[in-house]
Design goal:
By secondary structure, the protein is mainly β. It is 0% helix and 42% strand. The radius of gyration is 23 Å and the shape is elongated.
């Protein structure tokens, strides 16, 4: 690790004070979410710097079960945004720990969790007591849930595996605009839930539905999600496209596809629709020849009113007329929209 104090003109070693006797092949380090000079990293202990990596201080004892069979390292850690004194971490030998006083005391919180390599701990952005943990299954040949949630600092864990396949989960991120929406990177692609794990759907489809995804990052100002694969490049998708705008329990009485607004449009427009019963939703864009130019939605959705923010940037569409088609539970409707550059 290294750091620069002059905008990248030169770099200095950032390992002063670290014990690197045992480290994971993907050593985790994170930045405090309120102070960029404070960072944390994990070897078999947790270390903290308050001066931008010029020096490190251990804030934990050895948090592993020892160092045998190539195990015994910290694989993941996260610090709470709402309470920076709260940190969670996980290890390759199935331990999960939490501190609520910036490392003075650590509590092992593995009751109810499987004996598996911990791939990610992710703290809720607004609630330090809420955390998610994911497992890969490395070193252990077993089936069962790979993703869990706690609402009480790890005193209890609940599986939110839902309808997920029995595949390793490598990363979990929380949508900051809707914290009920979770996105995971698995050995079988990227999947999303909008109800904290009750139901999961493939996000994006295509290549990412068949290759391992090891990291995910959300750039919230642009609402772009970037997925980093295992040796198969990186991919991005726009998350700003859809939201459920239903008001409480007032469910639509019929299926309706509304005219997009604005229309004509450039560079984006909103497509709104009502669905009266839960079902599998397909929303696609076609050109005048009938050729499909974009598959917008291909997932199960609950009854409600939805609004999709469609942008031309992904496919760099030319000016002209296009059609958007909604299909759900035997209902089909098509409307015309006009792009003017």
């Amino acid at each position: 690790m290294g750091y620069s104090a002059n905008g990248g003109s030169s770099f200095s070693s950032g390992t002063n004070g670290l014990d690197l006797t045992y480290t994971n092949w993907s050593t985790p380090f994170i930045m405090d979410k309120t102070n960029p000079l404070i960072l944390y990293t994990g070897t078999y202990k947790i270390y903290k710097t308050i001066n931008g990596m010029q020096s490190w201080t251990a804030i934990s004892p050895d948090l592993t079960n020892g160092h045998v069979q190539n195990l015994g390292t910290i694989t993941t850690l996260d610090v709470s945004k709402s309470n920076p004194a709260v940190l969670y971490c996980g290890t390759d030998d199935a331990n999960v720990w939490v501190t609520t006083n910036n490392g003075t005391n650590w509590t092992k919180i593995i009751s109810g969790l499987p004996n598996r390599w911990v791939t990610r701990v992710t703290v809720h952005p607004d609630s330090a007591n809420v955390c998610y943990v994911t497992h890969s299954g490395y070193k252990v040949d077993s089936s069962g849930a790979h993703v869990f949630r706690t609402t009480n600092y790890g005193n209890n864990w609940t599986s939110i595996h839902g309808n997920l396949p029995n595949a390793p989960i490598n990363v979990l991120v929380i949508d900051p605009n809707d914290t009920k929406t979770l996105i995971i990177g698995t050995d079988a692609g990227v999947m999303i839930t909008r109800d904290i794990g009750a139901t999961w759907n493939i996000l994006g489809g295509g290549l990412l539905s068949s290759i391992p995804v090891h990291d995910l990052k959300i750039h919230n100002p642009s609402r772009k999600l970037v997925a980093f694969t295992h040796g198969r490049s990186a991919y991005s998708i726009n998350l700003s496209v859809i939201q459920n705008i239903s008001n409480g329990n007032n469910k639509p009485e019929q299926y309706t596809l509304f005219q997009n607004y604005p229309n004509p449009f450039n560079p984006s427009t909103k497509i709104r629709y009502d669905i009266k019963k839960d079902g599998f939703v397909s929303l696609k864009i076609y050109d005048l020849t009938g050729k499909e130019v974009e598959n917008l939605i291909n997932e199960n959705q609950k009854a409600g009113t939805y609004e999709y923010q469609f942008s031309i940037y992904k496919n760099n569409l030319a000016s002209g007329a296009y059609f958007y088609k909604l299909q759900i539970n035997g209902f089909t409707d098509v409307k015309r929209m006009l792009l003017i550059k």
